[in-house]
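G., before I forget:
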Amino acid sequence: MTSHLRNLLIVVFSLFVSNMALAHTGEGVTGGLISGFMHPIAGLDHVTAMVAVGILGAFLGRPAIWVLPVVFPLVMAFGGVLGLVGVPIPFIEVGIAVSSIVLGLMILFTLKPPLWIAAVIVGAFAIFHGHAHGTELPKAANALAYSAGFVVSTGLLHLAGIGIGELIRWPMGQIVARAIGGIIALAGVWFLTG
Amino acid sequence: MKTINRFLKTLTAAVFTCLLPVQSAFSAGFHYQLDLTAKLVHNQKNELTAIQMSWIYDKELSAILMDGEDLSEANREKALEKRKAEIFEGLTEVKYFTTVLLNNNALEVEKVKNYKLRLNKESRLQMNLTLPLKKSQALQGKTLEIVVTDDSAVGLATFIDANHMLLGKQFKAMCSKPSLVQKKLAEVDGHAQVVETMTINCR
Amino acid sequence: MKYLPIQNLLLALIGLLLPVGAWAAGTSFFMKGFYHPMMVPAHIIVLFSLGLLLGQQGWRAIRVVLPAYILVLIASLIMTRYQTAAWNAELVLLTLAAISGLLVVFKLSLGVWVPLLIAIVAAVVIGMDSTVPRIPGLQLAKIYSHLAGSGVFASGLLIIISLLALTLRNLLDGVVLRILGAWSTAGAVLVVTLLLAPDINP
């Protein structure tokens, strides 16, 4: 373990200790921030898709490595706006589940479509994810804190995906990344059928 | 390896920076409470001429407003005298959190000339003042409402209960027992604005 | 017992001391002011996006824009004593955050004028939105302490994020910054929609 990773763990541990000491119930701004942060993480269907976008971008190389994780949130915001204003989109949950299947399979079989096709696929799925987030937003106690929370956690999930994707520099890493893609695709099937 | 180390170093700093406000967000915004006891003042014609008010500040606010002052037995009066004008001025700026309505019409008030600041047994500041009406008002056959609220929602100005509205002998004879209604309005910057209406029916 | 390097101990100490800050807010108006922007997510989001933009633009932009931002912020904080703002601060700040995020995504070479303009508007709005809680009779020294605390946080956060972003600007073609910029735009757009259409039925 590098010393920097250890430092990170020490900091996080210390902060958790002091958090417990304060024992706040997490209402208002803090509550909104935490519930927003947890929303993508608590939804495995969101987690798998976010990570898959990051991995796929790394697989496709530059410029996809930044184009896909950037297209996703921007189109997702559009889907979110649709969700907020009440424009119905059918089969939202199906769309979200299918996103994991399709993106997972693309990673598993190392499919490398042209950048514009990959961006269109990612963008199309982003609308479903965005719509789901958008319908949650008005219910949130503090919408902006909620939004800030899920922005941070989803960005981190993309970065985690890119980190996994970067493993393809090593032969073993390729296998690991593709295996994760397979798991994501399987998870998508489970979301669809479960 | 160098890139990864630099990335991890930056990530450490980034996580630390991001987690810092999580810690600090646990300290909530400032709120205070002022407890009001009010008494109706009348003239010889049994017309309402003024409202005597006693505002008791909560302990934390009292400590803040007297921060840095010597409140020992020997110097307490001097310290209170020193801060009296500024604390009173603060209450004046917010129009004593009070609106007086007679049959739903707001009554004009005059400048307060008499006020006193003291520290009670619980070390809470107490501001006693008399809020004079511009024109004396006959209450017979009318409904008097005293509305107290802090429109910034930082403070809670409260009667606590209807027993903190004192009518005095003359008004007690002609008016019913005061009733108090508390309403919570929409949030202002994350604080809920509370409006209290003390109603005295003299019909 | 294995000897822990001093830097690890220092980090652990800082982590454990953080709740002291929360306690201090109960007693000091400077600390109350310092923590106030944390209760206003719109301030955090715009400072985050602007910091990303400044870091991406490079050291030249940072050394010109940051001092200007700090000066304008100080002036706006002082102005809160004499004037209240009529605008909807949240709407303005979120729009600025969305614009800054988009500029980060496109990674354009903007020079100093565009970031400077965004920073000045942000400073005015953040400053005017940082009025001290109205407490009748509060001493002037405490009022200015509160304002100073807010100023220190709003400046400090922008400085830290700008410098962090500066170190990340070339990492993986600036991917990290671009992703964070995209997400802050997405978040800001969603909440602006919510603000503009308050009668939405979820």
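Residues 33-195 of chain C form one domain. Chain C has one domain: 33-195.

More on Monday.
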